[in-house]
Specification:
The structure is a single chain. The chain contains 14 helices and 23 strands. 34% of the residues lie in helices and 26% in strands. The longest helix is centred in the last third of the chain and has 26 residues. Helix 2 crosses helix 6. Strands 3-7-8-14-11-10-9 form a 7-stranded mixed sheet, with helices on both faces. The chain has 3 domains: 260 residues, Bira Bifunctional Protein, Domain 2 (BirA Bifunctional Protein, domain 2), CATH 3.30.930; 104 residues, Rossmann fold (3-Layer(aba) Sandwich); 66 residues, C-terminal domain of ProRS (Translation Initiation Factor IF3, 2-Layer Sandwich), CATH 3.30.110.30.
Length: 477
């Protein structure tokens, strides 16, 4: 394995090194499309498992909709097609001939789903209708980076229809809170919740809600979004229902989603110079057991005891695995599993067995504070569970402190841009609400990440006029 680039000097290359050396992704023959290798896909499966349960708890059911969408469907919602046109992949030929109507490869599924909703919704008794799908989407991105912005990516997208606007707003907020709780309690990423500016909202939405995270290089990353679509799609697709008074009405819709971008967020929030650090609640391997022996006569003794400990941990809800690879030295195994970010390592040799103990190593500790801890084999399951809880908490608190330390207040565009040149970070400031003032940020590769509930600034950062709200500004991925 090659040495990782310096995380403090070249964060972008460090990220690329992690992707390759930890065997998370590989480049496919198609530009911008990446192969998710088993280790990263296992993390995605765990994200799916947790989020799917939380989504179903809202009364939402899973379904699946086609990958191909008639081009005319996207044209029914003007803002939607305008927002996605540059990113569309379109099929014009199939079966050896030109198609009568081009088919768009799914960039998102509002249009096909609301076409189906128009068939399924006829009465107020059919509402609310809540559907989710786990799928892949294609957006023809110019600049790609694995997990963060790719031509094809995996996600879940939820779509709901409600009788009233208030119900739609409340449900979109509920889903945003589901994402925020998941990001904080499972990914250990502090999430900033807010509303996107009109220029940053989803194409066709009335309102876009977001949760934003802060990465170690001081850049923001949009983690998940939830949109109040209101009538934009329901009227475009002629969705009507008879309300309780016998009148025809259009339902109010929402859509919301989380993607494999969350894996990129996890890497950039918790990694260090030795590699990944995976929060225990989302790790596919929580404990790696490394057998250590020099003499062949000790091999079976150590391996058998390692298997016993693994089974003890598995029976107590811990995802444990034994690395019995004879091709690697113990030192090489330590390096490998540190790079992959497994939260806890257990080392076991003949003398440890003799003393009824195992060596425990905490991946979340820095090289300066990292100490080997000896625990009895009899109590290893209890000690490991305690440590896993502590690691989960420690990772969140560390990320929370970073967020606090990099959250600044600023009064003017000049002050913000000067500070962004010196070091990245989040800058809370006032905004008058005009697109002209917001657009000036693009010259500095910055943007309004979200509108904030708190209002502490009286004047706009750009024009100096009266501020109507506070916003959070940052450079972002």
């Amino acid at each position: 394995m090659n040495k990782l680039s310096d995380i403090n000097k070249d964060f972008a290359q460090w990220y690329q090194d992690i992707l390759a050396q930890a065997e998370l992704v590989d480049q496919s023959p198609v530009k911008g499309c990446f192969v998710l290798r088993p280790y990263s896909y296992a993390i995605w499966e765990n994200i799916q498992k947790v989020l799917d349960k939380k989504i179903k708890e809202t009364g939402t059911q899973n379904a699946y909709f086609p990958l191909f969408i008639p081009e005319s469907f996207l044209k029914k919602e003007a803002k939607h097609v305008e927002g996605f046109s540059p990113e569309l992949a379109v099929v014009t030929h199939a079966g050896g001939k030109e198609l009568e109507e081009p088919l768009v490869v799914r960039p998102t599924s509002e249009t096909i789903i609301y076409y189906m909703f128009s068939k399924w919704i006829k009465s107020w008794r059919d509402l609310p209708l809540k559907i989710n799908q786990w799928a892949n989407v294609v957006r023809w991105e110019m600049r790609t980076r694995a997990f963060l912005r790719t031509t094809e990516f995996l996600w879940q997208e939820g779509h709901t229809a409600h009788a009233t606007h208030q119900e739609a707003v409340e449900f979109s907020m509920r889903m945003l809170n589901v994402y925020k709780e998941f990001a904080e309690n499972y990914l250990a990423i502090p999430a900033i919740a807010g509303i996107k500016s009109d220029n940053e909202r989803f194409a066709g939405a009335e309102r876009t809600l977001t949760i934003e995270g802060l990465m170690q290089d001081g850049k923001a990353l949009q983690l998940c979004t939830s949109h109040v679509l209101a009538h934009s799609f329901s009227k475009s697709f002629d969705i009507e229902f008879q309300d309780k008074d016998g009148n025809l009405s259009s339902p109010y819709c929402t859509s919301w989603g989380a993607t494999t971008r969350l894996i990129g967020a996890l890497i950039m929030t918790h990694g260090d110079q030795n590699g990944l650090i995976i929060p225990p609640k989302i790790a596919s391997i929580q404990v790696i057991i490394v057998p250590i022996y020099k003499e062949e006569k000790d091999k079976n003794l150590v391996l058998n005891k390692a298997e016993e400990i693994k089974n003890l941990l598995l029976n107590n809800g811990v995802l444990a695995q034994v690395d019995s690879d004879d091709q690697l030295t113990p030192g090489a195994k330590f390096f490998k599993w540190e790079l992959r970010g497994v939260p806890v390592r257990l080392e076991l040799g003949p003398k440890d067995i003799e003393n009824s103990q195992v060596v425990l190593v905490n991946r979340a500790e820095s090289d300066k504070t990292k100490k080997k801890q000896f625990v009895s084999i009899e109590n290893v399951d209890k000690q490991v569970n305690i440590l896993l809880e502590n690691i989960q908490k420690t990772l969140f608190e560390k990320a929370k402190k970073r967020l606090h330390d990099n959250w600044h207040h600023a009064q003017s565009l000049q002050e913000i841009t000067q500070k962004l040149e010196e070091h990245n970070g989040l800058y809370q400031t006032g905004w008058c609400g005009s697109s002209e003032c917001e657009a000036k940020l693009k010259d500095y590769k910055a943007s309004i990440r979200c509108l904030l509930e708190s209002k502490e600034h009286k004047t706009c950062f750009s024009c100096g006029e009266l501020a109507t709200k506070d916003v959070l500004i940052a450079k972002a991925y």
